[in-house]
Design brief:
Chain lengths: ~425, ~450
Amino acid sequence: MADLRSEFVGIKSPNPFWLASAPPTDKEYNVRRAFAQGWGGVVWKTLGLDPHIVNVNGPRYGAVWGADRRLLGLNNIELITDRPLEVNLQEIKAVKRDFPDRAMVVSLMVPCDEESWAFILKKVEDTGADGVELNFGCPHGMSERGMGSAVGQVPEYIEMVARWCKAHTRMPVIVKLTPNITDIRYPARAAKKGGADAVSLINTVSSITAVDLDSFSPEPSIDGKGSHGGYCGPAVKPIALNMVAEIARDPETRGLPISGIGGITTWRDAAEFMALGAGNVQVCTAAMTYGFKVVEEMISGLGQWMDEKGHADLGAFTGRAVPNVTDWQYLNLNYVTKARIDQDLCIKCGRCYAACEDTSHQAIAIRPGRVFEVIDAECVACNLCVNVCPVETCITMERLEAGTVDPRTGRTVEQRYANWTTHPNNPMAEAAE
Amino acid sequence: MTASPQTPGIVAGRLPSAVVADNFSDVAPPLTAHEALVAADRCYFCYDAPCIAACPTAIDIPLFIRQIATGTAEAAARTIFAQNIMGGMCARVCPTETLCEEACVREAAEGKPVEIGRLQRFATDKLMAAGVHPFSRAAATGKRVAVIGAGPAGLAGAHRLAMLGHDVTVFEARPKPGGLNEYGIAAYKTVGEFARAEVDWLLRIGGIEIRHDHALGREVTLEGLRADYDAVLLGVGLGDVHKLEVPGRELVGVRPAVEFIAELRQAADKSSLPIGRRVVVIGGGMTAIDAAVQSKLLGAEEVTIVYRRGQERMSASADEQEHATTTGVRLVYHAVPIRLEGDGRIERAVFAYTMETEAGLAVSEETFTLAADQLFLAIGQTLAEVPAGLVLEAGKIEVDGAGRTGLERVWAAGDCRHGGEDLTVTAVAQGRDAAMDIHAQLMGG
């Protein structure tokens, strides 16, 4: 049986699945139930200074749905904890005492002055918590007050606060990054420079999920007005994966522990984040959609896959995909593929045809009897047909063997690797060997 | 005093009226808004969708389902009605399992097609319930067209002609419009006087006058109509039934199934209808199924359909057959009646087994007898009267693709016309297409 035990910046947990700082981890009742269900750890919902903040008293969430009203994206305008600091601290202490094997990390957000951070770090340390996460990510509400993403969007602030925190606590410090920036590497580098033990990402993406076409109010609507919220859930996973990979492969931050966050819904999502360099993962929307029980599938699924692949422990596959993330210019232009349609699996919906004919390269023909066939002479291997096909594995991309002629270009497929940097059409091309 | 399923003879009140009322309630209740959204989500919006090709009226099914999915069921209804003005009835009575839903790619993928028929009903019900008639008439053309028969073919043709600006007079032999929608079709498929409501709604286009109790060959003649109108569309249906050529056919209790079905449809209180204790239905089509199932629902103790060929040859769909057997109807295949027996009233029917041979259906020596208080014949209908000048093919009016008969300025559509499938939806398609051809010819000069 695969060993799912995790150790992240010295914090041990029975599995790599933590609940992210969010409503599910707002109070003792929730966290106890989450631990009972099997979650490896939690990042307690962000604490701030008293007097505690208040939330809106109307809707806090907006959503985007897929077919059958499957929740694909969720946005929120909830702020940090709206309960007194002492109440939270007592609960954290009680839960940690009763679940010593679980990771208890506490998320923090206080004004940008050293005294505030020193004050709250001391308080958290007294609870016996395993670490802290600095919330430099929330894009809504708190950012208007100079906190959250307002800090995360300025690398100098990140570095400064991280340094203060490292100076005032012995606990590991994780810096949670906002995706609402142009290049995630700069805030990550700043966190590292400030001495942070790790970064976690992504926090939510600034968003408006919908507009009410009767009232013309953005959703979620508070008395006819709306404010941008933070977007999360399966819809943001690709954004998060890329940002995790960017940090994992950046020479300046290489080796910096990453806690992966962003739309993780299944064991497979978790494995993908970890393959791209995340040491563990944090989950929120999946739990908010389906309840704490989803962790059971994550644990069993990850274990089964690791067993099947022979990965004895998490370290066996963590970061394995990082070397395969490269720049476009280094992609092999001699890798030539063609779409192949499995006629036995085809249900004849014709979506591949519509997509290719109307929006791509007119590379699919309809033969009598609604038989859809790829025209190799036109197929550029764009993959759109694969993506729109409702039947998994019905359409695949098959590589042309070296030595065969690509009917589209008339050129013989070469065995050797060749990329844009040496391509004759590239004005900047380096001299070929 | 009170009858039961076991009471001998043909009697009323075999079941409590509340039970009968429940038995004749909507066989496929409408989708709720939530159910409709879930069902609509399953549509793949196929390219050149097979369901459209499988629909005799070629409704743009993926488009109307997408319109439902995006919260515009009214737009969906317009998409449906643009092709099929009787989309409401067709949503109820089409054998979708052999048409659009059989062609649905999700039938191929999972054996569970998108519920196209029920979605169509959801959309059409919504627009009709809102009292909206989505079409208006074009400028008057001054042309007058006579339509004979206010059934699906005639009304579909009349609607399209009126929409195009022609003045239409419909001559209908019966006291009510609708044809088989009103007088045929099992009651539980079209509850709540839907057939009548649909006709009223259809007529809101304007420009259509229906003259009831006007039958071809009785109050009006084809020659007279040709003289008085610019064009004539025949949608007379099949007014007669095939006769059973066996001894005993004159016994009391032996009657055409279509008569029984019409009587049932017109009865305000179905529990007042007399029905036999042991009912035998001869035939293999939808009429046989409708008569048998409704006999059972009225409280007949035993109902048996006897069909001369095998199950695979039955024109009633597999779903219809299953509905019959689930209701408690017994289906007997490969048998034909050779003799009906009884003292004035039918008491027994004697059948011989049949075999399919290269020369056709052969009747064997082996026989069996079914007790019967009532026997319905559902062995097919036939043209009642053929005006002079019309050419027949296989007993129906011969037409070209657009529905033109051999007589100048005379078109035919629906069951009376050769080359149909005896379905409401086919009749609608033919009526509509004939109207388009009439329009082209009238306006083209």
